[in-house]
């Protein structure tokens, strides 16, 4: 299987890196380099390709065995997308022509193609992938890559590769994946049972530690920005969840472990060019556990802190977060004389001071809070931040050349200020600090020699001091979490950087890659061991599988005395060594090493020597150890005497790191490892961007593909027998008749195909690389042949169907034509007959019309003649009347004529006379006219003068007219006033008479007013007193309301507590201080309390007539001591009787619980409800709770008794207004005031009910007893419900997934017809129905009210719904079509069990829009739940698509917009509430009369029960 190629391939990691194909050693201006072949951008990652040659060899062997043909689905390499899907369109012996998904034709070698699963297209279209890479049909690079891409597009960021978890950074918040409910789901679940998750790995490690008693380790790796830190925090959060204590104080070990994360991030993380929160050190957190699996401590080990970042950064990176947090701390920053980060040299080398979405001041407070929880005291916190501030001030100290040669001094006043601030913060002498920075002391035999340092050396000394102080500070903080030295079990979480290869690689990359080489070796061994365990578990024959061992690379680096680290340490010890001599020595030592040909990574050696030298400057240690700050002095213990001779003490960073790695590997070898590989999907740090090339390189370097390679070296394809028969049973249909089991059937199929080297395990078949391709090829041939036969038969069927259709059509057309002709002839004849008939009727009508016209004419003519005759008669009559009138007027005319003739003669004579007179008058007139003309002329002159005078007079007349009118108005007004005055004078006389009478009345009223004022003053005084009393009463009322609300809250808490534990200690302890607390306030106003408590109440008198007997009033009554003794004995007897009633099963009579009725009758008879103080209620409650604690208690019996007793109390007791506290708060102050007034007026009263039962006014203990009884009832209900859930959970776990169907017709009928074969429910569902039947029978046997039965069944079905729904969302193998059918059929059985309903068809048409899904199909589910189902569901029976990719994308957009809703988990929560109240019980349960209950014979001996015997 290509083992030789594997041995030559080299390690997954890298490393060979350092010795990269050394052709020669040369010098450049930038320093000395290991010269390697030139590489383009990110081409250094291509070095990893050479390490997977064996892997590629195995994969390509699949292609060589796969028979390529036209239409085959393959993968082809692409420069941009790494691999792209394609389809073969032409094949030759050595080449093949393929068409990519973009439509591009490519001709390539057959050996460069990899097979692609033809069923993957459907999965890709639906948008789902496999949750375990080992389930891929073809386990190859492109299959792994595209499976991750499909899952990442759906926010499924976790995927298994065997036992390895791959986590792809979503670069978005997914709160629904990490809430407490999700942790509860993965708690105790087997690895692989639910969807891949970091919680699953954490739980697997925790359970393995607890069950096997062996420590575990979880190794989290990946490049910067891949999400290692967040993954580590999630692991630690889950471990503290499952291993933490239920309750604890503020500083529990669990809190310390969790809060160590933000503390380590503040001091160990920084912004880099790739990641805003990059860990600049590796850490191994050991969470320690005690023998019971609870966290007892934690230990944190750090590796390779990037000390150089303290003093040197590049833009756009930042220094460690803690410096920026301190600068933004406000008052603390002012106290330490700090300002903006731009004012400090160690921070202003980069112009990036803030991070997006991060508030430095808030982070400072979070760091302070984490320190408090971890256990760092306030003094130590003060010291830590003083040291940080001192480092910042130290970086601002600058030097200038001194007076002497090669000496230095403080540059300016600003540097002096920072020097003084540094000394003050370090609590040391400023001059001594300056001397430590600018000089060195050498101790010789002759004495001490002080050597001055130049400016460059002084700056280097300053930076060395800053790095040393910060490194030791971080080490001290890491040791702050409390450790448990007695712990023997721990879960270690390793968060370390992955392989790094940049354009410029230095000493840090060298050490990081060394660590990854060692971890890679451990990883290879673990994966190989896992393969061996799998083979052993399945009991198959297997031989040794070779895998890559990179021990030679590790020897090249670590081996003494000629390893690279040894040579580096040797070069560091010699002062004259340079990077050039170091590189030359390496080249000479490893010229013939076989790894040189395969190295692809370039390292710069110009900084190797400086970074490897970790000199301990004695002056620095002496200075800080003498600090007055005890915390700082503790970081620098005194050095041994031999080290004081030299100012420098050399320490190798590489050697120390190698020792740390060795200790880490020894720790890991003692633990069981679990691997999580974090992948960074893109370099932009943005969501939903998947860069194939980058991810593929990370998979190669992270060991994922190495695990695949190891799997390919053995038996990479593993299928359960049922899966194998389902897929390949059609290759041998004659064997699938049901006579063989699946294993034998699998073996016969493989032998028929003539495959070799396969293995049959206990549950799986193991196939070599390439064999699955042969099977798929044969399966494709069978399907092709079957499709051809189906096509030919279908074409025949279509042709016959078309012929029959044409024939039927022709016959139908002919019949139609004949029918049309017959119908036309019939229509013609029908029309002819109709025409004849119409003509006949037309003639008849015309004749009748003519006759009618003649008749009408004759009639008309006769009418006209009659009218003419009448009209002529009328005219004749009118003419006759007119002639008669004229005859009457003729005589009068003659007389008038004669008279007129006479008058005419007179007029003629007068006319002549007038003519004569006129002539004479004319003459006189002419004379007169001449006179008049003259006079007229004179008059005209006078007229003109008169006109002028007239105009003036007119004006005067107008003025006078106006005055006249005004005078008239005044006159009228005066007349009106005069009339009024006359009236007023009359009234005045009347008023004068009335005034005298009023004066008399006034005197009388004044006297009455004085008396009324006196009464009013007295009334006001009384009113003020009443107002003050009213205000006081209102205040008392408000205080009563507040106390009542507190009482209700406490009662609610009490009822909830009673569900979880026994109320004997808790409830009685609660009510006792409650009664004591409110005994002084809950009293009736205006009443003597002593009298209220001591005197017999009215109810006692009514209910106990014997209290009025002469014996009770006799002076010879029993003495007080004797009476108290008798009372105590009687109470004891009562308690024993009640406990006996509670402990014995008294059964039922006519459906009524005997125990509840007897207890109620006893309490009524003993007047317990009216007592101010009594212990009988505590006795009853303690007895009931004691019975409930017994494991085999008949809980339904007590549910029935408790509910009956509570209903009797609810209906027969009347709560006092001051003492009653309803279970549900009512209206407001008005209702409370009304109850108070009622209580004040009649504190004790009997009211007759419809059933003529006396309602007893209960006292405060009775009210508390009713609340306690309610709590016991709720507790009993909760216990029954929880027991039902416990019993039904194992049955549900068997019903969640459909059992494997028989293989009798595999390949024949499983996917043939369109009729869906419904599988009847198995015995698992029958067992659930039997359980429900037995439960219902048991409840009815104990006469549990139907109200409680309905509530119990409702909550059980809600639990079934929650369990099944969550299983579908967490287990993809359950979210299938066939499993949905199975669950539907089982749920239909449950529905028929309830209402005997008929089954409904479950098939739904494909929904095309999100609104249809949300409104019609899934109105109750949230978008997140619908999205989860849509992405998890797959049709394993018909391979159909349920939801389109557009709808899935639409839901994804909605979720991304609503990501702020913490809204939101896609799982259902279990309903643990009590679904009823006391009022609901009283309304739902019918009234029960306890009077007809007889006392059982077993209780007749008790003296306390004698009254029950007499009543019966």
From TrEMBL:
Its GO biological process terms? actin filament organization; actin filament-based movement
Residues in Myosin N-terminal SH3-like domain copies: 69-118
Protein known as: Myosin-15
- Domain Dilute, first and last residues per copy: 1185-1490
Residues forming the Myosin motor domain are 128-780
Q: Show the CDD domains listed in the entry.
A: MyosinXI_CBD, MYSc_Myo11
The UniProt annotation places ATP binding at: 222-229
Pfam families from the UniProt entry: DIL, IQ, Myosin_head, Myosin_N
Q: Which organism is it from?
A: Cinnamomum micranthum f. kanehirae
């Amino acid at each position: 299987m290509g083992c030789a190629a594997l041995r030559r391939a080299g390690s997954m990691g890298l490393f060979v890196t350092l010795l990269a194909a050394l052709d020669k050693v040369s010098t450049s201006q930038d320093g000395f380099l290991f010269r390697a072949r030139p590489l383009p951008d990110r081409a250094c990652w291509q070095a990893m390709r050479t390490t997977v040659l064996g892997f590629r060899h195995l994969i390509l062997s699949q292609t060589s065995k796969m028979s390529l043909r036209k239409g085959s689905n393959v993968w082809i390499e692409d420069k941009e997308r790494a691999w792209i899907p394609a389809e073969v369109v032409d094949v030759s012996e050595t080449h093949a022509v393929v068409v990519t998904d973009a439509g591009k034709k490519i001709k390539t070698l057959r050996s460069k193609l990899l097979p692609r699963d033809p069923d993957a297209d459907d999965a890709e279209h639906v948008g789902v992938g496999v949750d375990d890479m080992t389930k891929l049909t073809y386990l190859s690079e492109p299959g792994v890559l595209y499976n991750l891409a499909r899952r990442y597009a759906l926010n499924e960021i976790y995927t298994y590769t065997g036992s390895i978890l791959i986590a792809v950074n979503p670069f978005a918040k997914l709160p629904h994946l990490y809430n407490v409910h999700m942790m509860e789901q993965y708690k105790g679940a087997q690895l692989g049972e639910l969807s891949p998750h970091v919680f699953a790995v954490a739980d697997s490690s925790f359970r393995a530690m607890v069950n096997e008693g062996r420590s575990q380790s979880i190794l989290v790796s990946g490049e910067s920005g891949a999400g290692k830190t967040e993954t580590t925090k999630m692991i630690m959060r889950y471990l503290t969840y499952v291993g933490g204590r239920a309750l604890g104080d503020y500083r529990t070990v669990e809190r310390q472990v969790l809060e160590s994360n933000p503390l380590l991030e503040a001091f160990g993380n920084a912004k880099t060019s790739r990641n805003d929160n990059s860990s600049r050190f590796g850490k191994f957190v050991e969470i320690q556990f005690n023998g019971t699996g609870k966290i007892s401590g934690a230990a944190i080990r750090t590796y390779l802190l990037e000390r150089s970042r303290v003093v040197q950064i590049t833009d756009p990176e930042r220094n460690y977060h803690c410096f920026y947090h301190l600068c933004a701390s406000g008052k603390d920053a002012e106290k330490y004389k700090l300002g903006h980060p731009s004012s400090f040299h160690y921070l202003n080398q980069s112009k990036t001071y803030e991070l997006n979405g991060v508030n430095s001041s808030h982070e400072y407070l979070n760091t302070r809070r984490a320190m408090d929880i971890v256990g760092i005291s306030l003094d130590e916190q003060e010291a830590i931040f003083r040291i940080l501030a001192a480092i910042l001030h130290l970086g601002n100290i600058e030097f200038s050349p001194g007076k002497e040669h090669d000496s230095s001094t403080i540059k300016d006043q600003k540097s002096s200020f920072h020097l003084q601030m540094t000394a003050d913060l370090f609590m040391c002498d400023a001059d001594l600090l300056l001397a430590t920075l600018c000089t060195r002391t050498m101790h010789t035999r002759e004495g001490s020699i002080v050597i001055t340092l130049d400016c460059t050396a002084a700056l280097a000394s300053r930076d060395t001091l800053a790095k040393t102080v910060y490194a030791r500070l971080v080490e001290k903080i890491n040791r702050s979490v409390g450790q448990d030295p007695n712990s023997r079990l721990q879960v270690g979480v390793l968060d370390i950087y992955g392989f790094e290869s940049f354009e410029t690689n230095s000493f840090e990359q060298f050490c990081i890659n060394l660590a990854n080489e060692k971890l890679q070796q451990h990883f290879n061994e673990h994966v190989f061991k896992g393969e061996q365990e799998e083979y052993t578990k399945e009991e198959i024959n297997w031989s040794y599988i070779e895998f890559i061992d990179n021990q030679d690379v590790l020897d090249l680096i670590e081996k003494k005395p000629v390893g690279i680290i040894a040579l580096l340490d040797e070069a560091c010890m010699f002062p004259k060594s340079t990077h050039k001599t170091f590189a030359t020595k390496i080249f000479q030592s490893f010229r013939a090493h076989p790894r040189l040909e395969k190295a692809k990574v370039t390292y710069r050696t110009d900084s190797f020597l400086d970074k490897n030298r970790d000199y301990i400057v004695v002056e620095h240690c002496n200075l800080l150890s003498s600090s007055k700050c005890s915390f700082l002095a503790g970081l620098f213990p005194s050095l041994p005497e031999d080290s004081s001779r030299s100012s420098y003490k050399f320490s190798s960073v590489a050697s120390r790191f190698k020792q740390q790695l060795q200790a880490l590997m020894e720790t890991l070898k003692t633990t069981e490892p679990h691997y999580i590989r974090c992948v960074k999907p893109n370099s932009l740090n943005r969501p939903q961007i998947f860069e194939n090339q980058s991810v593929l390189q990370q998979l190669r370097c992270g060991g994922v593909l190495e695990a695949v390679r190891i799997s390919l070296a053995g038996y990479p394809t593993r299928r359960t027998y049922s899966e194998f028969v389902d897929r390949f049973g059609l290759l041998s249909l004659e064997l699938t008749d049901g006579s063989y089991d699946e294993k034998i059937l699998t073996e016969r199929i493989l032998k028929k195909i003539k495959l070799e080297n396969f293995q049959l395990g206990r549950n799986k078949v193991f196939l070599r690389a390439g064999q699955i391709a042969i099977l798929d090829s044969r399966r494709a041939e069978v399907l092709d042949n079957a499709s051809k036969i189906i096509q030919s038969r279908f074409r025949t069927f279509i042709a016959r169907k078309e012929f029959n259709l044409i024939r039927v059509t022709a016959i139908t057309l002919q019949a139609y034509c004949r029918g049309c002709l017959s119908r036309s002839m019939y229509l013609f004849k029908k029309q002819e007959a109709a025409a004849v008939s119409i003509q006949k009727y037309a003639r008849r009508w015309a004749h009748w019309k003519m006759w009618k016209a003649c008749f009408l004419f004759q009639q008309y003519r006769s009418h006209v003649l009659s009218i003419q005759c009448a009209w002529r008669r009328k005219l004749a009559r009118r003419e006759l009347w007119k002639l008669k009138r004229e005859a009457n007027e003729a005589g009068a005319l003659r007389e008038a004529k004669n008279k007129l003739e006479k008058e005419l003669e007179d007029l003629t004579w007068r006319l002549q006379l007038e003519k004569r007179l006129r002539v004479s008058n004319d003459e006189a007139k002419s004379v007169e006219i001449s006179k008049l003309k003259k006079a007229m002329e004179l008059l005209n002159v006078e007229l003109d003068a008169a006109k002028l005078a007239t105009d003036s007079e007119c004006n005067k007349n107008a003025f006078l007219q106006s005055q006249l009118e005004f005078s008239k108005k005044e006159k009228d007004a005066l007349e009106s006033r005069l009339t009024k005055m006359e009236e007023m004078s009359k009234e005045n006389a009347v008023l004068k008479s009335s005034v005298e009478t009023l004066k008399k009345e006034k005197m009388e009223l004044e006297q009455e007013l004085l008396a009324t004022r006196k009464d009013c003053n007295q009334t006001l005084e009384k009113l003020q007193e009443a107002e003050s009393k009213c205000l006081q009463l209102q205040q008392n009322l408000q205080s009563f309301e507040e106390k009542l609300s507190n009482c209700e809250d406490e009662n609610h808490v009490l009822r909830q507590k009673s569900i979880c534990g026994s109320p004997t200690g808790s409830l009685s302890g609660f009510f006792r201080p409650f009664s004591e607390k409110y005994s002084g306030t809950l009293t009736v106003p205006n009443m003597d309390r002593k009298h209220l408590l001591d005197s017999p109440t009215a109810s006692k008198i009514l209910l106990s007539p014997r209290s009025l007997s002469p014996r009770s009033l006799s002076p010879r009554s029993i003495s007080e001591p004797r009476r108290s003794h008798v009372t105590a004995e009687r109470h004891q007897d009562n308690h024993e009787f009640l406990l006996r009633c509670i402990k014995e099963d008294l059964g039922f009579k006519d459906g009524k619980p005997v125990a509840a009725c007897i207890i109620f009758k006893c309490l009524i008879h003993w007047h317990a409800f009216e007592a101010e103080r009594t212990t009988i209620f505590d006795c009853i409650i303690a007895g009931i709770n004691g019975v409930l604690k017994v494991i085999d208690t008949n809980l339904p019996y007590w549910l029935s008794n408790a509910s009956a007793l509570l209903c009797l109390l609810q209906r027969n007791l009347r709560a006092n207004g001051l003492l009653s506290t309803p279970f549900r708060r009512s209206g407001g102050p008005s209702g409370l005031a009304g109850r108070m007034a009622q209580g004040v007026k009649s504190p004790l009263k009997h009211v007759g009910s419809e059933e003529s039962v006396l309602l007893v006014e209960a006292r405060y203990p009775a009210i508390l007893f009713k609340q306690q009884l309610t709590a016991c009832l709720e507790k009993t209900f909760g216990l029954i419900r929880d027991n039902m859930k416990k019993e039904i959970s194992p049955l549900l776990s068997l019903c969640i997934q459909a059992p494997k169907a028989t293989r009798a017709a595999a390949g024949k009928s499983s996917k043939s017809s369109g009729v869906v074969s419904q599988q009847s429910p198995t015995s698992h569902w029958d067992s659930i129905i039997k359980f429900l039947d037995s439960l219902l029978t048991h409840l009815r046997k104990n006469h549990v009210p139907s109200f409680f039965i309905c509530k119990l069944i409702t909550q059980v079905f809600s639990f079934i719904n929650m369990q099944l729904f969550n299983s579908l969302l967490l287990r993809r193998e359950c979210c299938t079509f066939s499993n949905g059918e199975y669950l539907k059929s089982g749920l239909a059985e449950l529905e028929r069990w309830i209402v005997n309903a008929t089954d409904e068809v479950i098939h739904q048409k494909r929904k095309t829009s999100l609104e249809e899904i949300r409104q019609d199909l899934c109105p109750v589910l949230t978008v997140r739940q619908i999205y989860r189902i849509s992405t998890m569901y797959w049709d394993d029976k018909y391979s159909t698509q349920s939801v389109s990719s557009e709808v899935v994308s639409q839901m994804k957009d909605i979720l991304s917009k609503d990501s702020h809703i913490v809204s939101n988990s896609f799982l259902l929560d279990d309903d643990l509430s009590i679904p009823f109240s006391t009022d609901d019980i009283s309304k739902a349960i019918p009234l029960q009369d306890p009077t007809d209950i007889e006392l059982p014979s077993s209780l007749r001996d008790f003296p306390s029960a004698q009254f029950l015997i007499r009543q019966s």
